[in-house]
Each structure stands twice: as C-alpha cells, then as structure tokens.
Design brief:
This protein is mainly beta. It has two domains: about 120 residues, Immunoglobulin-like; about 100 residues, Immunoglobulins (Immunoglobulin-like). The protein has two helices and 19 strands. About 30% of the residues are buried.
C-alpha cells in the first residue's frame, strides 16, 4: 500500500506542476498585447493610434440592431483598420464591401462570394446603398472581400431588423440626397474623450486606396487646426474611412476633403467640425 502511494505521489506532483505551467501560459497569453497593425492599415501620423479592439471589422454606421423601419432605406457602411479599393484591384489589405441579406458568413473563405440578390457587391468603392425589401424580418451583414470577391476575415455582426412597410414609387434621390462627404464622428462642438474616433462618410462618391490611381475614385484628407499651432494633415490614402486619434489638449477645427485619385483635385469638402480635447 505504501509502495503504491509512493509511486503515485511523484506523478501527482508532475500533474500539478504541468497544471501550473498551463495556467501561467494562459495568463501570459491573455496579458500579451495584440499583434501591431500592418503597414498601410492605419493612416500615417504621430497622433494616430490603433483602435481599442485592435481588430479590423465592418459595421453599419446608421442602422441599429432590432430596429423597425420602412423600406426603401439607406444602409451606410463603416470599416475599421482596413481601407477600400474597388473590385479587380489589389492594394495591401484593402477590399470592397458586400451586403449579405439573410445569409450566414461563408463556410469557405477561399471561394469568391456569389452574385445573387442576397449577396450584393459594391465593387466601385461605395460606402452606402438603398435597400428595398418587402415587409418581414431580416438579417443584414457586411463582409469585406478582395479584388476577386474572396472574403477577408473582416465582417460585421449580424444586424436584425424588421421592415414594417414597403413604400412604392420612392425616388432614390429623396433618400440618398446630393453627393457629399460628412464627418460622422466627432459631433460638432463636442468635448471628446481619448482616444478619439474619427468616422468619415461619402454619399455618391467612390472611395479607393490611392495607389491604383483609379478614375472616379477619391480618398479622404483630414486637416486639424488649433489656435497658434501648425495645422496637422492626415492623408487617408490607404482608402481608410475611419481611425483613432490621441491629439494634445486644445480646441480643434477639423476640415475634410475628398481628393481625386487620378489627378489630386478636390472632389468635395465636408462641413467643418469643431471639438475640444480637455
């Protein structure tokens, strides 16, 4: 009996030691920082910082999960830690948006997304669309894909909504409005917390990484001005539409332009936004 106990004891100590090592490894992994973003995923500027999640994702900027609305309605697309480039063109990790209606994520991320009424492609670099659905319950999801429509592991959470009524004869322009660019975040005259999320949007314009120099596309440029200081210019030439900043304290005026990727001319200007970093 005692001999048997002596044989078991060392094994128990070994198992306990192994369990401790596994626990310590798990703690170390949990505390280890995420891998840094790859070059080109974030705009280049000393104030630009990675997003709190450190994870690229697509999302809807104007729709809320569980909403009830009438159709047609406008769906606007947001994208974090990635840029936009139209279909058929490659530029780093940039891609173009796809809207999935009542469809799960693809099972095979090595196959191109199909072209159907439930897989809507935005291969020109669009940031929004008009969705016209009959009454019913729906699940919407965004997926970013490459030049050949093969999806990246960049997508949105499923957004569930209910269409209560489908209105006929609605002119698209009455919902989409005139072509324009906007600053979605921060709000004008806001006192912000850091890091600060900058979200931009283009209606009626196509966004692209600047490298392919595609006609009929543009990229954003943000200029930050504060009294008595040199203006700070941030080029979003990777096709980015949002990013995070950690600027010094002060009062700022933010000006956003959309620059042509073919000739550098200004295609549009957003309404200036003021904010304060306390």
């Amino acid at each position: 009996m005692f001999a048997s106990m002596r044989r078991i004891a060392p094994a128990s100590r070994s198992l306990a030691a192994l369990a401790c090592l596994v626990l310590l490894a798990g703690v170390a992994a949990a505390q280890a920082p995420e891998a840094p973003p790859e070059p080109g995923e974030l705009p280049v500027h000393k104030w630009v910082v990675p997003p709190p999640s450190w994870s690229p994702e697509a999302h809807f900027t104007n729709l809320k999960d569980g909403a009830t609305l009438e159709s047609p309605f406008v769906a606007r697309f947001g994208l974090s830690m990635r840029g936009i480039v139209p279909a058929g063109h490659s530029a780093g990790h940039a891609g173009h948006h796809h809207l999935l209606i009542n469809q799960p994520l693809p099972l095979d991320f090595k196959k191109p997304l199909p072209f159907t009424e439930q897989y809507i492609h935005f291969g020109k670099g669009q940031m929004e669309t008009l969705v016209d659905l009959p009454p019913g319950s729906y699940s919407l999801r965004l997926v970013l894909a490459d030049q050949g429509h093969i999806p990246f592991f960049v997508y949105s959470k499923p957004l569930r909504l209910t269409v209560s009524r489908q209105n006929k004869g609605v002119a698209p322009a009455s919902l989409l409005g005139e072509p324009r660019i906007e600053v979605l975040s921060p709000a004008d005259r806001a006192t912000v917390q850091l890091p600060l999320r900058i979200q931009l949007h283009a209606s009626g314009y196509n966004i692209s990484h600047a490298a392919p120099k595609l006609p009929d596309t543009g990229h954003f440029r943000l200029t930050l001005e504060r009294p008595g200081q040199k203006a700070e210019v941030i080029e979003l030439d990777g096709g980015q539409t949002e990013f995070w900043l950690r600027p010094p304290k002060g009062s700022y005026s933010a000006r956003v332009e959309l620059l042509s990727n073919s000739n550098g001319a200004t295609m549009a200007r957003a309404r200036p936004v003021g904010f304060t970093v306390p």
